[in-house]
Amino acid sequence: MQISMPALLSQLLLGLVNGSFYAILSLGLAVIFGLLNVINFAHGALFMLGAVLAWMAMNYFEINYWVMLLAAPLIIGLLGVVIERLLLRWIYKLDHLYGLLLTLGLTLLIEGILRSAYGVSGLAYDAPDQLASATDLGFMVLPNYRAWVVLASLVVCFATWFVIEKTRIGAYLRAGTENPRLVEAFGVNVPLMITLTYGFGVALAAFAGVLAAPVIQVSPLMGQNLIIVVFAVVVIGGMGSIMGAILTGLGLGVIEGLTKVFYPEASSTVVFVIMAIVLLIRPAGLFGKEK
């Protein structure tokens, strides 16, 4: 089977775009699990909610994409603060299963409300005019919006990694989950820090949702199509590993894109095959810490 170079590069770009969504979503999951020890199954629903908010703002209030790229994560982040304060704070000391079941229930609630309001058919959301065209690179035509998605995702992902791993704020976050009493002795409000951490994690999901809105048709079910793959990405990278979530998300997106070129039938399962192999060889994940 002969594949032309433009077709191969186009599929690689598509894989990198999908990998960018995987990276941001798995990063949010890794932040929440690594620092709060909660398996946040509602992540896909909050990703979808970010896209729906952008669509509603455009169609009902004529608020453009750029405003919602900042506003949607703030709104969903505040919603995350409410969820953490009212619900999650009561289950931190319980088994992981309770957090998974609680956030699964939230997912079903959010999706059910939006399905009754908008149905399950996709809602079109156009890319901003500034990024609607494409650039001819000679060897391929590069859609400007897809290039923007990759660039924005990389900036947000590595900025998050830097804050958590290389700054004092990140050190307090990590220490607060391991020894909260010691951190509180230094005058740090650990419960507030945990609340804001969850809010930030779900804000990342909403940011990815707004980025995805012009690429994936906005639908109450759009989070379902990604969240299972994103959980696999987190497991492969290592539960709670920030850099593992970023690199694994991007890498698996590219592998998935190449699989669609050379063996399309396996494209929907290749991530799970890789997950099975990784778990057999290294149960903690590629970047996870062995206990």
TrEMBL record:
Keyword Transport applies: yes
A GO MF label: transmembrane transporter activity
GO CC annotation: plasma membrane
Family named by the database record: Belongs to the binding-protein-dependent transport system permease family. LivHM subfamily.
Record keywords: Amino-acid transport, Cell membrane, Membrane, Transmembrane, Transmembrane helix, Transport
Signal peptide positions on this chain: none
Protein's recorded name: Branched-chain amino acid ABC transporter permease
